[in-house]
C-alpha cells in the first residue's frame, strides 16, 4: 500500500481469515523445498541417468526463475501497479481496498509474474526435446505482426 494507505475489512471474520490465508501461503512457500524433494525421491528411481542429468538443472532453474519473478513482481511491479490503479481515485471515488481483495490481487499478481519468468526454462526444455530451434525462433521473431502490417499499409 502507498504511504498513508490503509486496508479495511467489511465482514466480521474477514481479518481473521485473511491472516489464516497468509499463514497458509507462507507455509506452502516454506515447505515447498521439502515437498519438491519428496516428489523427486519418488520419481528419481524410475528415471535413467541421462534423464536425471537433465531434470536437476531444469528444476533448479525453474525454481530460481519463479522466485526471481515473484521478487520482481513484489519489489518493482506491485508498487507501480498499485500507484497506477489507485490513481483513478477522485474526490468522489475513494479507494478503500479490503484485506481480502488486497491479498487476492497480490497473490494473483505475484503468481503471474512467477509464471511469466518461467518462459526461458520452457523454451530451453522445448529446444532440448527438439520441438523448437534457434532458426525457428528467428523466423518467428522476424514475421510482421498483423497490427504492424496494417500500419504499414496506411
Walkthrough of the structure:
With 154 residues, the chain is mainly alpha-helical. The protein has one domain (14-141). It is 73% helix and 0% strand. It is built from 6 helices and no strands. The protein has helices spanning 14-43, 49-86, 99-116, 119-128, 134-141, 146-153. The longest helix has 38 residues, at 49-86. The radius of gyration is 22 Å and the shape is flat. The termini are far apart.
Distance between the termini: 44 Å
Q: Decide which structural class fits the backbone.
A: mainly alpha
In total, the number of domains comes to 1
Largest pleated sheet: none
Average pLDDT confidence is: 86
H and E string: HHHHHH
Q: Percentage of helical residues?
A: over 70%
Strand tally: 0
Q: Which strand-content bin applies to the residues?
A: under 5%
Query: Tell me, what's the shape?
Result: flat
Number of helices: 6
Gyration radius, to the nearest Å?
22 Å
In the predicted model, the low-confidence regions spanning at least 5 consecutive residues are none
Helix-strand blueprint:
Blueprint: H1 14-43, H2 49-86, H3 99-116, H4 119-128, H5 134-141, H6 146-153
Helix pairs in contact: 2-3
Spell out the key features of this protein.
single chain, 154 residues
Write a compact overview of the structure shown:
This protein has 154 residues and is mostly helical. The chain has six helices and no strands. The radius of gyration is 22 Å and the shape is flat.
Amino acid at each position: 500500500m502507498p504511504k498513508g494507505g490503509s486496508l479495511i475489512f467489511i465482514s466480521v471474520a474477514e481479518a481473521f481469515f485473511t491472516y489464516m490465508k497468509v499463514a497458509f501461503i507462507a507455509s506452502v512457500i516454506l515447505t515447498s523445498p521439502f515437498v519438491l524433494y519428496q516428489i523427486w525421491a519418488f520419481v528419481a528411481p524410475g528415471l535413467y541417468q541421462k534423464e536425471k542429468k537433465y531434470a536437476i538443472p531444469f528444476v533448479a532453474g525453474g525454481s530460481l526463475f519463479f522466485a526471481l519473478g515473484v521478487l520482481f513482481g513484489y519489489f518493482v511491479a506491485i508498487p507501480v501497479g498499485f500507484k497506477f490503479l489507485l490513481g483513478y481515485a477522485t474526490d468522489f471515488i475513494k479507494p478503500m481496498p479490503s484485506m481480502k481483495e488486497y491479498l487476492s490481487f497480490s497473490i494473483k499478481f505475484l503468481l503471474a509474474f512467477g509464471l511469466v519468468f518461467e518462459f526461458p526454462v520452457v523454451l530451453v526444455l522445448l529446444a532440448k526435446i527438439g520441438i523448437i530451434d534457434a532458426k525457428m525462433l528467428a523466423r518467428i521473431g522476424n514475421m510482421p505482426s498483423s497490427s504492424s502490417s496494417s500500419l504499414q499499409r496506411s
